[in-house]
User: What shape does this take?
Amino acid sequence: MSSELHLFLEKKIEFSVASAVIPDIPAPEMVTIMMHVKNKWSKSMFPLVKHGEVYRVVECLQNLSKTDASIRGAIQVYAEIQLPTTLVPTRYFEFLRYGKEIMDGVHIIVDVTRHCFGDPYARYNSEKRPSGVIIREYGRKDCEIIWIESVEVEETRETMYSSIINSNLAYNADRWISTLLWKLKRDRSSFADLKIDVHPRPVLFSWL
Assistant: This one.
Protein backbone atom coordinates (compact mmCIF):
# COMPACT_ATOMS: atom_id res chain seq x y z
CA MET A 1 0.00 0.00 0.00
CA SER A 2 1.38 3.38 -0.97
CA SER A 3 1.98 6.02 1.66
CA GLU A 4 -0.49 8.33 -0.14
CA LEU A 5 -3.29 5.75 0.09
CA HIS A 6 -2.38 5.01 3.69
CA LEU A 7 -2.79 8.68 4.60
CA PHE A 8 -6.15 8.80 2.83
CA LEU A 9 -7.45 5.84 4.85
CA GLU A 10 -6.48 7.27 8.23
CA LYS A 11 -9.44 8.02 10.47
CA LYS A 12 -10.25 11.14 12.42
CA ILE A 13 -12.95 12.07 14.92
CA GLU A 14 -15.11 15.15 14.43
CA PHE A 15 -17.08 16.43 17.43
CA SER A 16 -19.21 19.56 17.78
CA VAL A 17 -22.19 20.92 19.72
CA ALA A 18 -24.56 23.76 18.82
CA SER A 19 -27.94 25.03 19.97
CA ALA A 20 -30.73 27.13 18.51
CA VAL A 21 -34.38 28.03 18.85
CA ILE A 22 -36.41 26.62 15.95
CA PRO A 23 -39.34 28.97 15.23
CA ASP A 24 -42.85 27.68 14.52
CA ILE A 25 -41.86 24.05 15.11
CA PRO A 26 -43.23 22.56 18.38
CA ALA A 27 -41.11 19.89 20.06
CA PRO A 28 -43.32 16.93 18.98
CA GLU A 29 -43.13 18.08 15.36
CA MET A 30 -39.34 18.32 15.56
CA VAL A 31 -39.25 14.75 16.86
CA THR A 32 -41.37 13.69 13.89
CA ILE A 33 -38.98 15.39 11.46
CA MET A 34 -36.03 13.53 12.93
CA MET A 35 -37.74 10.12 13.00
CA HIS A 36 -39.35 10.21 9.54
CA VAL A 37 -36.06 9.86 7.72
CA LYS A 38 -37.05 9.54 4.06
CA ASN A 39 -39.98 11.96 3.86
CA LYS A 40 -39.02 14.60 6.43
CA TRP A 41 -35.46 14.40 7.82
CA SER A 42 -33.64 13.94 4.50
CA LYS A 43 -35.71 16.69 2.84
CA SER A 44 -35.30 19.09 5.76
CA MET A 45 -31.53 18.54 5.70
CA PHE A 46 -31.10 18.86 1.94
CA PRO A 47 -28.58 19.48 0.34
CA LEU A 48 -26.41 18.22 3.23
CA VAL A 49 -28.26 14.89 3.17
CA LYS A 50 -28.02 13.55 -0.35
CA HIS A 51 -30.08 10.44 0.42
CA GLY A 52 -31.70 8.91 3.47
CA GLU A 53 -33.85 5.85 4.06
CA VAL A 54 -34.93 3.41 6.76
CA TYR A 55 -34.24 -0.32 6.84
CA ARG A 56 -35.69 -3.00 9.06
CA VAL A 57 -35.28 -2.52 12.79
CA VAL A 58 -32.70 -4.81 14.34
CA GLU A 59 -33.81 -7.10 17.15
CA CYS A 60 -31.91 -5.26 19.89
CA LEU A 61 -33.86 -2.06 19.22
CA GLN A 62 -37.15 -3.92 19.01
CA ASN A 63 -36.52 -5.36 22.47
CA LEU A 64 -35.46 -1.94 23.75
CA SER A 65 -38.68 -0.28 22.59
CA LYS A 66 -40.75 -3.07 24.15
CA THR A 67 -39.15 -2.65 27.56
CA ASP A 68 -39.34 1.17 27.63
CA ALA A 69 -42.71 2.71 26.75
CA SER A 70 -41.19 6.20 26.56
CA ILE A 71 -39.14 5.25 23.47
CA ARG A 72 -40.79 6.69 20.40
CA GLY A 73 -39.68 4.58 17.50
CA ALA A 74 -36.47 2.68 16.87
CA ILE A 75 -35.13 2.63 13.32
CA GLN A 76 -32.11 1.65 11.28
CA VAL A 77 -30.94 4.48 8.99
CA TYR A 78 -28.83 4.54 5.83
CA ALA A 79 -27.68 8.04 4.88
CA GLU A 80 -25.41 9.65 2.30
CA ILE A 81 -23.93 12.99 3.38
CA GLN A 82 -22.46 15.18 0.66
CA LEU A 83 -21.28 18.72 0.02
CA PRO A 84 -22.50 20.22 -3.29
CA THR A 85 -19.26 19.29 -5.08
CA THR A 86 -17.81 16.11 -6.56
CA LEU A 87 -14.35 17.02 -5.19
CA VAL A 88 -15.35 15.87 -1.69
CA PRO A 89 -16.13 12.15 -1.22
CA THR A 90 -19.63 11.23 -0.10
CA ARG A 91 -19.89 10.03 3.49
CA TYR A 92 -21.90 6.84 3.85
CA PHE A 93 -23.46 6.06 7.22
CA GLU A 94 -25.51 3.21 8.64
CA PHE A 95 -26.70 3.83 12.17
CA LEU A 96 -29.42 3.10 14.66
CA ARG A 97 -31.73 5.89 15.79
CA TYR A 98 -34.38 6.06 18.46
CA GLY A 99 -36.40 8.80 20.13
CA LYS A 100 -37.30 9.02 23.81
CA GLU A 101 -39.16 11.49 26.03
CA ILE A 102 -36.91 11.83 29.07
CA MET A 103 -39.22 14.22 30.91
CA ASP A 104 -42.34 16.22 30.22
CA GLY A 105 -41.64 18.40 27.18
CA VAL A 106 -38.05 17.18 26.70
CA HIS A 107 -37.13 14.62 24.04
CA ILE A 108 -33.87 13.10 22.85
CA ILE A 109 -32.99 11.60 19.49
CA VAL A 110 -30.08 9.16 19.80
CA ASP A 111 -27.85 7.96 16.93
CA VAL A 112 -25.21 5.25 17.24
CA THR A 113 -23.32 3.26 14.61
CA ARG A 114 -24.38 -0.32 13.91
CA HIS A 115 -20.77 -1.31 14.52
CA CYS A 116 -21.46 -0.98 18.26
CA PHE A 117 -23.86 -3.92 17.91
CA GLY A 118 -21.36 -6.09 16.03
CA ASP A 119 -23.16 -5.97 12.67
CA PRO A 120 -20.79 -7.34 9.98
CA TYR A 121 -23.10 -6.39 7.09
CA ALA A 122 -23.29 -2.64 7.65
CA ARG A 123 -22.35 -0.57 4.56
CA TYR A 124 -20.49 2.61 5.41
CA ASN A 125 -17.18 4.44 5.14
CA SER A 126 -18.00 6.67 8.12
CA GLU A 127 -19.27 5.89 11.61
CA LYS A 128 -21.69 7.66 13.91
CA ARG A 129 -20.27 7.85 17.37
CA PRO A 130 -22.94 8.47 20.05
CA SER A 131 -24.70 11.58 18.74
CA GLY A 132 -28.15 13.10 18.73
CA VAL A 133 -30.45 16.00 19.38
CA ILE A 134 -32.02 17.21 22.61
CA ILE A 135 -35.38 18.84 21.93
CA ARG A 136 -37.40 20.81 24.47
CA GLU A 137 -40.50 22.93 24.30
CA TYR A 138 -39.87 26.66 23.99
CA GLY A 139 -43.16 28.45 24.38
CA ARG A 140 -46.29 27.18 22.67
CA LYS A 141 -45.12 27.22 19.05
CA ASP A 142 -41.33 26.88 19.11
CA CYS A 143 -38.73 24.42 20.31
CA GLU A 144 -35.11 24.66 21.40
CA ILE A 145 -32.60 22.08 20.21
CA ILE A 146 -29.08 21.07 21.23
CA TRP A 147 -27.37 19.28 18.34
CA ILE A 148 -24.52 16.90 19.26
CA GLU A 149 -22.52 15.65 16.27
CA SER A 150 -19.80 13.05 16.73
CA VAL A 151 -18.47 10.98 13.82
CA GLU A 152 -15.42 8.99 12.81
CA VAL A 153 -14.48 9.57 9.18
CA GLU A 154 -11.66 9.08 6.72
CA GLU A 155 -9.16 11.88 6.25
CA THR A 156 -9.79 13.92 3.11
CA ARG A 157 -7.39 13.95 0.18
CA GLU A 158 -5.74 17.26 -0.67
CA THR A 159 -8.22 19.40 -2.65
CA MET A 160 -9.35 23.01 -2.67
CA TYR A 161 -11.88 22.06 0.05
CA SER A 162 -9.42 20.25 2.33
CA SER A 163 -8.92 23.12 4.75
CA ILE A 164 -12.69 23.49 5.24
CA ILE A 165 -13.28 19.76 5.70
CA ASN A 166 -10.34 19.25 8.04
CA SER A 167 -11.33 22.27 10.13
CA ASN A 168 -14.69 20.57 10.89
CA LEU A 169 -16.67 23.49 9.45
CA ALA A 170 -18.35 21.55 6.65
CA TYR A 171 -20.26 18.99 8.70
CA ASN A 172 -20.34 20.37 12.24
CA ALA A 173 -23.43 20.86 14.40
CA ASP A 174 -23.76 24.51 13.38
CA ARG A 175 -24.01 23.49 9.74
CA TRP A 176 -26.74 20.93 10.46
CA ILE A 177 -28.79 23.53 12.33
CA SER A 178 -28.23 26.25 9.71
CA THR A 179 -29.29 23.81 6.97
CA LEU A 180 -32.50 23.04 8.87
CA LEU A 181 -33.27 26.72 9.50
CA TRP A 182 -32.60 27.61 5.85
CA LYS A 183 -35.01 24.90 4.66
CA LEU A 184 -37.73 25.91 7.12
CA LYS A 185 -37.34 29.57 6.17
CA ARG A 186 -37.56 28.73 2.49
CA ASP A 187 -40.68 26.58 2.99
CA ARG A 188 -42.39 29.44 4.82
CA SER A 189 -41.31 32.09 2.34
CA SER A 190 -44.00 33.76 0.26
CA PHE A 191 -41.66 33.36 -2.70
CA ALA A 192 -42.19 29.59 -2.57
CA ASP A 193 -45.87 30.14 -3.40
CA LEU A 194 -45.25 32.83 -5.99
CA LYS A 195 -46.79 32.04 -9.38
CA ILE A 196 -44.99 33.52 -12.38
CA ASP A 197 -46.75 33.82 -15.72
CA VAL A 198 -44.81 32.22 -18.55
CA HIS A 199 -45.52 33.54 -22.03
CA PRO A 200 -45.98 30.80 -24.64
CA ARG A 201 -43.92 32.73 -27.19
CA PRO A 202 -41.28 35.46 -27.05
CA VAL A 203 -42.48 38.99 -26.38
CA LEU A 204 -41.14 41.63 -28.72
CA PHE A 205 -40.04 44.82 -27.07
CA SER A 206 -39.81 48.14 -28.90
CA TRP A 207 -37.16 50.54 -27.81
CA LEU A 208 -37.68 54.27 -28.04
About this structure: Strands lie at 11-22, 49-55, 71-81, 91-103, 106-113, 127-128, 131-138, 142-154. The chain is about 25% helix and 35% strand. Residues 1-8, 202-208 have pLDDT under 50 and may be disordered. The first strand starts at residue 11 and ends at 22.
